[in-house]
TrEMBL record, chain A:
Native species: Abeliophyllum distichum
Name the record gives this protein: Protein TWIN LOV 1
Keyword Flavoprotein assigned: yes
InterPro entries, alphabetized: PAC, PAS, PAS-assoc_C, PAS-like_dom_sf
Domain PAC: 320-374
Lineage: Eukaryota, Viridiplantae, Streptophyta, Embryophyta, Tracheophyta
GO molecular function: photoreceptor activity
Keywords, sorted A to Z: Chromophore, Flavoprotein, FMN, Photoreceptor protein, Receptor, Sensory transduction
A Pfam family matched in the record: PAS_9
One BP term from GO: response to blue light
Occurrences of domain PAS (ranges): 39-89, 273-295
UniProt key word Signal: no
Coiled coil: none
Automatic annotation (TrEMBL), chain B:
Name recorded for this polypeptide: GDP-L-galactose phosphorylase 1
Gene Ontology terms, MF aspect: guanyl-nucleotide exchange factor activity; hydrolase activity; nucleotide binding; nucleotidyltransferase activity
Species of the source: Abeliophyllum distichum
Keywords: Cytoplasm, Guanine-nucleotide releasing factor, Hydrolase, Nucleotide-binding, Nucleotidyltransferase, Transferase
Places the protein is found: Cytoplasm
Main location group: cytoplasm
Coiled-coil spans in chain: none
InterPro entries assigned: GDPGP (IPR026506), GDPGP1_C (IPR058865), GDPGP1_N (IPR058866)
This protein's record includes keyword Cell inner membrane: no
GDPGP1-like N-terminal domain residues: 75-247
Family according to the record: Belongs to the GDPGP1 family.
Residues covered by the GDPGP1-like C-terminal domain: 254-401
Keyword Nucleotide-binding attributed: yes
One GO cellular component, as annotated: cytoplasm
Length: 399, 441
């Protein structure tokens, strides 16, 4: 999708000054940067280190979601934890089985953290660092568990690690054994490899340190390059998001709804739009920043029936859903008949938090989508929005 | 026996729909527009025909289709649209979105809802609670007695190799379609009932076919926040007519966050684990080379429990990729007077949703004072004891033993369980991972 790629380019270009990609690629690490505000939460940057490890080209990865690297043996619970960390806008460090382009799985330590806008505390990007965990064969008595560095430091710790693997007969003392270990490693049979995949690897301190260092380095680059545009980012949330802004979790959820709709906040003066879908922007010809913060009445014009507008006001006042047919105008002032459905949306408190307005261009004859009638499709948007708003306002708010 | 209807364009189908409404008004029947032979002939419902595919095929497909973003799946749109329609038509007993709800602070993330109306207006249980298998009774309430307006669509496998949707398909009475209906006393938005072969009037007992249907629905909906649940008789099913429930809640359930300890993997690739660090003992099933493999291992386990008169609940989570099975004994304890009055007063009947960590509370004080300790305490009453659970597991593994790998030494594993050490490292790491926000950057 042309506009999708455009959004992805902008994700970086609006925030960071030129040469940021080159600077990032000077780092040897494997990492990706994703944008939760673009629907689908796509990857907007993938380091050369990443592409090398996973075996993909840049074009195969940019614009795709991170789940493309998961596969049948990826632990479902880990996937859920990552998903929830995204939703709660929190950092997470977790070992995960991923798959390369050639289909081979491998274990890695996945460290993900949010990148905040310094100005308003919103999550701008998520940074994901991948540190592969080397295979540590478990069968042979004389091979070692854990990392060589680890063992040299502290034999006791290594032994503790081995016990956790339930291998009590491993010798851990000499460097010679370490040497032998790596030789055995290289001739391990396919059987061993199979078992390594099913039984996950221990992550050692080394991997964690690598991950932390990579995160730190990437954030430095991003911070530096955001200074020059004046739109600073930082690794910690510096201020609380304003009430007018939706959290990134709600943004991500709403971004999955591929229809024209807006969310307006009745608790703010003049009930401004606080969310507008991509399809809405395409339909009306406006850019997002031209729409957010404004009341929907800008869509009406000279020949819009004031009685219809009054009707809408009444339904909103009484918190009732309604469907009206109203003459609206695009940015270029061309009119269109808008089959508009408006419904109150409650959050977890049970009270009305937003109104959702779902637009259908009535003059457009191409209403057939999968056989659902336009009215049904509108209602499905209402349902999806209701689920998202209710669910995402239930938890303790992210700090 | 699949419908021989060609796909109908939307414009025409809207027109046909109006016709159908008139027809059913004509038909008269018992006058209640129900789902029985008096009213059904001539009735039409949307039909969603899902594609039956095996897992590996499905995965290849999904890898390829990652090129597009994953929009709200079509089944989602259909279900949500139909549900919201019924909501606006006033078919529900109350607006569930007007019920306060929250995640209880703590490690587990139990979910509490204050819902004073559900209990008062819910259909009462009409059968004995000490037998898991009871014959279907025509005279008691069953789903053929609901109004057709409560039924949203038919859910059937498609004949050709693709998803099909017919906005206005006749109901093939001989074929006894499976349908999706609203739950008029919803626990959450989108609360529906999946009723396999509704006209077959099957009692509340899982079999391979019906479980597979439920699993297909979970997979088809494609959202980890749309979960299906099943309560056996004796485990707080309220209607003895085969049905699964489902609804949307876009937060993780505590049960999904609980760590697990691997027990074994079947020949068909299904991984079976113990649930650890959770008040209710149970098993979780994952993986499988195909959806059918996973489905059959679970349904065979359910059948074993049914045959042994052990009440149980099932939660299908993660778009059908993780299935939790909980044998339970709360009803028995209640009948024997072994449950404290404090717990009885909350009037919480621990069915699948409660066990999974989603509690609907009827009294304001229970909601205000809801805490992780209270929730844990209640659920601990539901769980089988360690010894009893061990016995049940032996029963189960015997029943599905032909699917378990020969050299796995499952029995040995079971005996070793008394060691505190969890069987799999993966899950030790997961334990650490279960507290997100570890690293300060």
């Amino acid at each position: 999708m042309e506009s999708q790629l455009g959004l992805i380019e902008q994700s970086f270009d609006l925030r960071y000054s030129g040469w940021v990609r080159e600077a990032l690629n000077e780092l040897p690490d494997s990492f990706t940067i994703t944008d939760p505000c673009i629907s689908g939460h796509p990857i907007v940057f993938a380091s050369n280190g990443f592409l090398k490890i996973f075996g993909y080209s840049k074009d195969e990865v940019i614009g795709r979601n991170g789940r493309m690297f998961q596969g049948p043996k990826t632990n479902r619970r880990s996937v859920m934890e990552i998903r929830e960390a995204v939703r709660e806008e929190k950092a997470i460090q977790i070992s995960l089985l991923n798959y390369r382009k050639d289909g081979t799985p491998f274990w890695m330590l996945f460290h993900m953290c949010p990148v905040f806008s310094k100005e308003d505390g919103r999550v701008i990007h998520f940074l994901g660092v991948q540190v592969p965990i080397p295979r540590r064969p478990k069968r042979s008595v004389s091979t070692v568990v854990g990392n060589i560095g680890n063992l040299c430091e502290n034999g006791a710790r290594a032994r503790e690690g081995m016990f956790r693997c339930c291998r009590r007969e491993v010798c851990s003392d000499t460097v010679l054994e370490l040497g032998r270990g790596s030789a055995l490693d290289s001739v391990s049979s396919p059987d061993d490899r199979e078992i390594d995949i099913n039984e996950p690897c221990e992550t050692s301190e080394l991997e964690k340190q690598k991950a932390n260092a990579a995160v730190s380095n990437v954030l430095s680059v991003l911070t530096h390059y955001s200074e020059l545009t004046g739109k600073l980012v930082c690794g910690k949330r510096c201020c609380l998001s304003g009430t007018g802004l939706l959290g990134s979790s709600l943004n991500i959820s709403l971004g999955r709804i591929k229809q024209s709709f807006v969310l307006s906040d009745p608790r703010l003066p003049d009930m401004p739009i606080v969310y507008a879908s991509d399809t809405f922007l395409e339909l009306t010809g406006y850019a997002r920043h031209e729409v957010l913060g404004h009341n929907c009445r800008f869509l009406s014009g000279l020949d819009t029936d004031p009685a219809t507008q009054f009707q809408i006001k009444e339904y909103i006042r009484t918190e009732q859903p309604c469907t009206v047919r109203i003459l609206n105008y695009r940015k270029d002032r061309t009119p269109f008949w808008n089959l508009l459905h408006i419904s109150p949306v409650r959050n977890a408190s049970g009270k009305v938090a937003y109104f959702v307005g779902v637009q259908i261009d009535d003059s457009c004859k191409n209403q057939e989508e999968h056989g659902l009638s336009p009215q049904r499709r509108q209602l499905s948007v209402v349902g999806a929005v209701k689920v998202a708003v209710r669910s995402l306002s239930m938890g303790a708010s992210s700090s | 026996m699949m419908l021989r209807i060609k796909r109908v364009p939307t414009v025409v189908s809207n027109f046909q729909k109006e016709e159908a409404e008139e027809d059913s008004r004509h038909a008269g029947g018992c006058g209640r527009n129900c789902f029985r032979s008096c009213c059904l002939p001539g009735a039409k419902l949307p039909l969603y025909a899902f594609k039956k595919m095996n897992k590996t095929e499905g995965e290849k497909k999904s890898v390829g289709s990652e090129n597009r973003e994953s929009p709200v799946a079509f089944l989602d749109s259909l279900l949500l649209g139909e549900w919201e329609d019924r909501m606006q038509r006033g078919l529900f007993r109350y607006d569930v979105t007007a019920c306060e709800t929250k995640v209880i602070p703590g490690q587990c993330g139990f979910i509490a809802q204050l819902n004073e109306g559900r209990h008062l207006k819910k259909r009462p249980t009409e059968f004995r609670v000490d037998k898991v298998s009871q014959p279907f009774d025509e005279n008691k309430f069953n789903f053929t007695k609901v109004g057709q307006e409560e039924v949203l669509f038919q859910f059937e496998p498609s004949t050709d190799n693709d998803v099909q949707f017919f906005p206005n398909a006749p109901i093939n009475i001989e074929n006894s379609p499976s349908v999706v209906a609203i739950n008029v006393s919803p626990i959450e938005y989108g609360h529906i009932l999946l009723i396999p072969r509704i006209l077959g009037c099957l009692p509340q007992r899982i079999d391979r076919d019906s479980f597979l249907l439920a699993l297909y629905m979970a997979a088809e909906a494609g959202s980890p926040y749309f979960r299906l649940g099943y309560n056996s008789l004796g485990a707080f099913a309220t209607i003895n007519h085969l049905h699964f429930q489902a609804y949307y809640l876009a937060v993780p359930f505590p049960i999904e966050r609980a760590p697990t300890g691997k027990i074994t993997t079947t020949i068909g690739g299904v991984k079976i684990c113990d649930i650890l660090n959770y008040p209710v003992r149970g098993l979780v099933f994952e993986g499988g080379n195909t959806l059918e493999e996973l489905s059959n291992v679970v349904s065979d386990s359910c059948i074993c429990l049914q045959d042994n008169n052990i009440p149980y609940n099932v939660l299908i989570a993660d778009s059908g990729k993780r299935i939790f099975l909980f044998p339970q004994c709360y009803a028995e304890k209640q009948a024997l007077g072994e449950v404290s009055s404090e717990l009885l007063d909350t009037q919480v009947n621990p069915a699948v949703w409660e066990i999974s960590g989603h509690m609907v509370l009827k009294r304001k004080e229970d909601y205000e004072e809801a805490s992780e300790e209270n929730a844990w305490r209640l659920l601990a009453e539901v769980s089988l004891s360690e010894e009893r659970f061990h016995e049940v597991k032996e029963l189960l593994f015997e029943a599905i033993s032909c699917s378990i790998e020969e050299d796995n030494g499952v029995t040995q594993n079971l005996l070793d369980e008394s060691d505190a050490c969890p069987q799999s490292l993966e899950d030790v790491d997961a334990l650490k991972g279960s507290h997100p926000g570890i690293v300060s950057v």
